[in-house]
Amino acid sequence: MKTRVLSSLVMAILMVLGIFKLPAMIFNVLALLLMLGGLSEWRRLCSANVALTLLSAAGMLILYAVYTGGLLHSLSLFVLLASGVFMWLVKALSLAVPLTSNKHLCMFDGMVSLGLAWLAMVVIRDQFGQHSLMLVLLMVWGTDTFAYFGGKRFGKTKLAPNISPGKTREGVVSGVLAAMLVAVLYTHIFIQPLSSFTQMLVLLFVAMLVALISVVGDLSESKLKRAAGMKDSGTIIPGHGGILDRIDGLIAGIVVYAFYASLAAGLLN
Q1: Of 243, 224, 251, 247, nearest to 40 (Cα)?
Q2: How many domains does the chain have?
Q3: Which residues contact 233 (CB under 8 A, 6 or more apart)?
Q4: Phi/psi class of residue 266: alpha, beta or left (left: φ > 0; alpha: ψ in -120 to 50)?
């Protein structure tokens, strides 16, 4: 547990420094490298060969080039983010369905999931500010942390015993409530004062969605690991496992928040 806590603290500090101190270009590159690291672990879970992995990585690099080259206008970004939200909703509905053993589909899923997560991350930071990106990270971290401790303290009903036996419905409720509290406090203090009850209700609803979809991301990776017969996606992070083990909830939740932010900002106008 000490190793796990120390690793979490170091990662959190590095992420905060990266969000608030790094120039956009460097941050975007490092975020891409993080997602490519996740893709390399996804390859192991899919049992994909090197050629298929390189092809998937090339797809993510093309997305990077298109975005940084300014070739994605507002409507294109909105459509991509909306597609990402739809994808995660489909994943939520298909959690009970046996996973396909097709490595090509598996890697395509990884490329799209991680590529859209990278896009959502840089869009939030570039267009909505560093505090907005920090907010979504805190919501996902809050969900994960309080779902764990809430499950330990109050957990009785298993959430998805065939996928992740340790998760409970009570833990998820704890995590969702934590995300909602974090969203209200952080937004009111660091982004903008919540001047109306309607604003607060919308924010609470979005926080609930981000939290729930982050749980879907966690369960989706657990499903992949179970199908591959692996406990962790990797060993690079002491006490945690691999990169995917730490960002599985984030890659889902951040797409939902980016879609909401784009919709709220009226990027289609």
Answers
A1: 243
A2: 1
A3: 38, 41, 42, 44, 45, 221, 225, 241, 242, 243, 244, 245
A4: left
**Which distant-in-sequence residues (6+ apart) come within 8 Å of 44 by Cβ?**
228, 230, 233, 234
This prediction's pTM? 0.95
Query: Rounded to the nearest 5°, which phi and psi values hold at 240?
Result: -120, -35
- H or E stretch including 173? helix 169-186
Residue pLDDT, tens place only, 64-95: 999 999 999 888 999 999 999 999 999 999 99
Which residues form the domain of 200?
Answer: 2-265
Structure tokens belonging to residue 187:
């937004």
Residue 164's beta-bridge partner residues?
160
| Residues 268 and 79 sit within 8 Å (Cβ to Cβ) | no
Nearest-angstrom CA–CA distance, 48 and 224: 13
What does the radius of gyration of the chain's CA atoms come to, in whole angstroms? 18
Q: What span, in angstroms and rounded, lies between the C-alpha atoms of 126 and 65?
A: 16
Contact call for residues 88 and 213 (beta carbons, < 8 A): yes
> Mean pLDDT throughout 220-240?
90
Hey, is 164 helix, strand or coil? strand
Q: Which residues of 41-66 are buried (b: 16+ CB within 10 A; e: fewer)?
A: bbbbbbebeeebbeebbebbeebbee
